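User
Please review the sequence:
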Amino acid sequence: MKLKHIIFLIIFGTFFVTCKNDTETSLKEYMTKSWQTTYLKLEMPTYQKSDSLEIYEDKFENDPELLAQSKYNSDGTFSAWFINKKGEKNSNSNGKWRIENDSLFVEFFYNERDMKVSYHVKKTKEGFLAKSKYDWDNDGDYDDLLTMKTKQIKAQ
């Protein structure tokens, strides 16, 4: 290979690695805020090992009973909770988070279960869109698809 080609590949490779790290850093900084879930859709194609499709979908409009909120801290920890109609926090859960490329990885204990979930994350005008394939119905099959939209809120 000619020296020009080798130099080009080194420069291009360095540029690619730099862009990847910048994107990762940018998403981590973007996520280090407080969020509220504005839309949630959970599709479970083999709900608890049955041949039934179970779908849960909510846009959290019209004064819902509970609102899901979360705060991601720069030290890699996060908190998630629900706010009821009286504005009271309940069902608080704490955990760890990290960003790799365009994915969010979270670890926490919830509902008597250790959770380790990864989401593909995309920034939106209001917040972010996250998608995850996981065993949400606890049947042993990682075939359930969760789609979540958020909006940024003031720190709680």
About this structure: Residues 2-9, 12-22 have pLDDT under 50 and may be disordered. Helices lie at 3-31.
